[in-house]
Each structure stands twice: as structure tokens, then as C-alpha cells.
Amino acid sequence: MKRVLIISQHFYPEIGSHANRIKHLYMQLKKENYDVKIFTSEPSYPNKKIYEDEEFWDEESLNCEKDNIVRIGINNRKYSNSILNRLFYYLEVALKFLFLIIKDKQRYDYIFVTSPPIFTGFVGLFAKYRYNSKFILDIRDLWPESLKGVGVFNYPLILNLFGALEKILYKKSDKIVINSLGFEEYIQKKAKISKSKILFIPNGAVKEEIASINRQENKTPKIIYAGNLGLAQNTELINKLVPLLEQQGINLTIIGYGVNKNELFKSIKQYRNVTIIKPLTRKECFKIITEHDLGLVTLKDKEVFKTVLPGKIIDYMTCGVPIVGVIDGYAKEIVEKERVGIASNTDDPQEILFLIKKLLDDKKLRKEMSQREHHVILRDFNWDANIKKLVEYMN
Q1: Which residues of the chain have pLDDT under 70?
Q2: How many CB atoms lie within 10 A of CB 48?
Q3: Residues 359 and 254 in one domain
Q4: Which stretches make up the Glycosyl transferase family domain (predicted)?
Q5: What domain range includes position 95?
Q6: Same domain, 19 and 150
Q7: How far apart are CA 282 and CA 229, in angstroms?
Q8: What is the DSSP string of 166-224?
Q9: N or C terminus of the chain: which is more exposed, having fewer CB within 10 Å?
Q10: pLDDT at 161
Q11: What local confidence, expressed as pLDDT, does residue 148 receive?
Q12: What domain count does the chain have?
């Protein structure tokens, strides 16, 4: 039986697409009869306190796995606009992972490491030589390109250093896994590697999640924003959109977390058409998403974000909820090509309101989009099928 070590800062029961991706990967590889172990951290995103609630620990098979899930404790837990706070946090995680690897006497055939943060990537590179294993690098965001995109860090010398480190990781890895096809060309050019070294495995859903969806019609139009309200998301646009939605009698539900959450919630709390819900488990979140007519996605208009495919898009499609996307590049291409919503790269709230009303007024079109979404998920974003690509490589 082949042995795999996964190294990931985030994992079950944390919320967010990073933790959910690694949870599915871990469980799918076990289903494929691999002996899988993970080094991860104690759940703390977006804050440690929410995981005191037992409802987040809803995967009994993982709750029993004490030996194969090894967690490190973290002292610096600040998720903030301060890039220095984040860097110290990432470095602390990386150093503790290194100590685990040095102490661990087992042998592994494959080291699977997910990045960003880039420091975890270098932990994986160290593990490759420590265990004499194949090194699989999972890229969920282009880093440091995304640092430039969020606009909180602009020191060319340090960014160039990070860029050089990124290139080393691409070259030294045995396989690169990407969750967005938008990354493929960038990585090829950056590291001068062949396309054959790159494997596309997007975030996705499992069949049980799709089977549990039960859509119902609403008397009052309802749209939802579910997910991160961070530095990459255009929260300013949501802020401007809320009063316009209220004027039109359209309700907005937000299930949100992230560094811009408090600022946004404070500025929109006086509007009666807004319902704010605290972070939920994935299962509970899906139940609420399905009660809505449309799902909203927003990204800032920066070049790097044209390469990403937000996890919200896949979650909305899993729930059969048509998408209104303030997006560009690869994500916009997916929404338009598959005809599962409307996408625009404008940040004009009046124009976004027009698109929302256009879809809300066309019940037949929304139903067609909803049906297509399930087809697209089963065909392209299905973990049970997509894990076979990784298994084929590892075998």
C-alpha cells in the first residue's frame, strides 16, 4: 500500500475552500486505498472559538482518525490586513511543520503540499529530500502575484525574492496540481516547464452533496453571498449594492467571514433587506444557499484574479443556484460558456442590479441554468471522478 503525507495549514473541520479541498482529497485518497497521513494545524480560521461548537465536527470517519491527523498548535492567530502579522503566522506554521517532519520516522511514497502560503511549499520540498519521496505541489492561488493583487504589500525587492522562491518550487516539484486552468500558462512561462507536468484538479463536490439538494421557489426574491469577505473580494461593491436591492424589494443573505467582514456588516446593518448569518458547516451552508434564487460572486478587478475560479461558483452550481458574477478572465469564461449565470467585469452597482433583475424576472431561464449547473458539476467538478487523475499519476 502506497503512503501519502499531506501537509496543509487548513483542514477539516475548518470552513473555506482550502480546508474543504484538502478534506476531500484526504478522504478520496483513502477510498482509493492509499495510506494517508496529514500534518495540519488546529482549526482556527476565521477564529478558533467557532470550533468549540460540535456541529462543525460532523465527519465521524475523520473524528476517529487520531493517528493519521497530526495537528500543531499556533500562537500567532491574527488574520488581518497587516501583511507582517500574516507572514509571522505563516512562518510559525512552517517551522512547526518542519519539526514534525524531522521527528517523524515513517516513510512516504508521495508528499502532497498545498500552497499558498509559499512557506508550506518549502516545507514540502524539505520533506521530499527528508523522505526521498515524490513531491506533489498543489497550487490554489498564484503567490506572490495575489499579494500584489490585494494591494497591501508593495515592496518590489521582497516580491522579486518571493517570485524567485516560487519558481524554485515549480521546478523542484515532481508534479504540479492546479485548481484553476487559469494558472496553467502562468506557471509554464514562469518556470519554463512543460504542460505535461501540470495536472488540473478543480475544487468540487461529491455526489452525496448534489443528491441532497432540494430547491424551492421564493415569493420574495432572495440572493445570497456565501464565503470569504477578504482582501480579494469586492466588498465595496456589495456595500453600494445593498441600498439598491432594498429599493427593488430584493433580499440579500450574507454568510460571511474574513478581514473585511466587520467593516461591511457595520455599514449595511441599517438595511432591512439584509440577513447576516454567522459561519456555518458546509452542509448547513448548502441548505441555506438552495433557498435562494441567485448567488453573488465579486472579485476585485486585478490581473491576477482573472486566473482564479472562486469556490463560491462551484458551491452555487452544486446547489443549483444561478450565478451573478462580478468577475473576469477564467471564472467569467466558465459562467458564460456553461450558461449557468451572468458575468460582468463592471463594478457599477446599477449595472449589476440590472443583471440581477434580468435573471430574477426570467424564471424559465433560471430553471434551465440550475439544471445545467448540476450537469456541469457531475461532469467537471466531481471529486469522485477527478481524484482518478491523481491516482493515475501516483500509480
Answers
A1: 76-83, 152, 211-215
A2: 12
A3: yes
A4: 207-372
A5: 3-201
A6: yes
A7: 17
A8: HHHHHHH-SEEEES-GGGHHHHHHHHT--GGGEEE----B-HHHHHT------SS-EEE
A9: N
A10: 87
A11: 74
A12: 2
